[in-house]
Amino acid sequence: MSGYIPNTQEDIKRMLDTMGISSVDELFVDVPESLRMGELNLESGKSELEVRTIIEELALKNKQYRTVFRGAGSYDHYIPSIVKTITTKEEFVTAYTPYQAEISQGVLQSIFEYQTMICELTGMDVSNASVYDGAVAAAEAVMMTQERKRTRVVVTDTVDPQVLTVVKTYCDGRSIPVCVVKSSNGRTDIEAIKEALGTDSACLLFQQPNYYGIIEDGEALVSLAHETGAKAIMSVNPISMGLLKTPGECGADIAVGEGQPLGMPMAFGGPYLGFMASTKKMMRKLPGRIVGQTEDAKGNRAFVLTLQAREQHIRREKASSNVCSNEALCAMTAAVFMASVGPEGLASMAKSCFNKAHYAMSKLAEIPGVSLVYNEEFFHEFLMTCPVDPACINKALAENGILGGLPVDGKILWCVTEKQSKAQIDKMVSIVQEVCCK
Question: How confident is the model at residue 364 (pLDDT cuts 50, 70, 90)?
Fold first, then answer.
């Protein structure tokens, strides 16, 4: 029963019995114990004001950082004030899914503008809307490439581990084989990719820049995929597109990525936005929605839902996806952000990220025992060794209001964006030096 919420113990027991589990706790078995808050254990009879006070006290335990040097999929970028000013208007926040075009022209236009900008950003022919996040976009792209005699998915291990996990989950449900190719010196191993690709390969998925921040040879990887008849999927950082070659320029069939850097705060992990774009040839396999521009009976500019490939709109066996929820507000946020910074602003942001990251890396490398793990060109993330436990470094940084890099197998993955000033970088480096040289 759609929308039904169990509200009695009997309802909950019936639901659990139907699912074949014995307790509500089993629903969260995949969530690590350390992340489970459990029940609040509030005393009964509390007033709204008393409960609010308790919750606010709990909220004070959240750590807020003034400076962020961590990325790995979620990035701290400057968001122009106009973005929030526009997207928090009541008519946008409360707008519903555009099922009826005649009363949804505003929402449809915002999606159309977003699609147009994503196409310009990626260099692709057509874009969709309504994908939850970058990981889901990558998994949906993999599903787009499936053919009767081509099912195997080839992916490099330099793809974000969380993205790879979602891709594997999608493929596991459909018994699709996934071949994860080992990297070499932090980059995709071209020779290993050659060996992995074959006549049964549906696609090659790689990330640009990759998980370690290293810039891949996009054109070479796309060419390898096409030589065997497989489709090439590029998962890209949208800000890096202001500096690097776009998927379109590399000849990719599908471009995907996490849209969070486009005007959305890090926000404890969401809500985010997955963007997808493809060549015209792949257009009819795109999941979600595609908004098109047309003319009404009076010859005025109008917008319609041109393609809807999900199960609610066409026969279920012909649906290419079950992506349902409307991500239009996040898509509008990305569109307003891109419109406010413009092509030159995006290029300036990308160059600033690149330059500041390289400055930070060079200063950190002066500390004894700290060095770049992979001697490869990178965008704004880089993996470095450290002579002490990364947790000790991050603890010292946290005490100074700084979120340090992500610990990765005893090393640290640092990220620097346009937001971090030279003074902030120097302060971070001095703290790291103090910890490492004790």
Answer: very high
Residue 300 CB-half CA count within 13 A: 4
Mean pLDDT of 285-294: 89
pLDDT of residue 323: 72
pTM exceeding the 0.85 threshold for the entire prediction: yes
The pLDDT of 273-301, averaged and rounded, is 92
Q: What is the pLDDT of residue 1?
A: 42
* Cβ(215)–Cβ(378) below 8 Å: yes
Over 70: is that where the pLDDT of 325 sits? no
Distance between CA atoms of residues 211 and 407, nearest Å? 13
pLDDT value of residue 277: 97
